Amino acid sequence: VQLVESGGGLVQPGGSLRISCAASGLTFSSYAMSWYRQAPGKGRELVASISRAGGITNYADSVKGRFTISRDNAKKTGNLQMNSLKPEDTAVYFCNARAQGYEYWGQGTQVTVSS
Question: Could you report the per-residue pLDDT of 48-59, keeping only the tens digit for each?
């Protein structure tokens, strides 16, 4: 099983970025998907989650209204569209897939918001 994140980078405050997670080796549609982030010196924080079919989404209060999680089960990909980015959004972002006691993580992608 592999989850591979991509799309991270450096963006100015107020800018946008879209990060993606490509899954392989698992039946992606059977797994709920989440994005977590970890800033330097802090614990890992749940940012957003989406149900297996994509009909239910949840967001941390800190990103609600700015971030949008989505998935394409046919392509086995998940995405996180991040708008109105703030310096406090700077972190390594991790993709997570979870189902019935099984859990997988990606290696993370760095997002830096700075002028």
Answer: 999 999 999 999
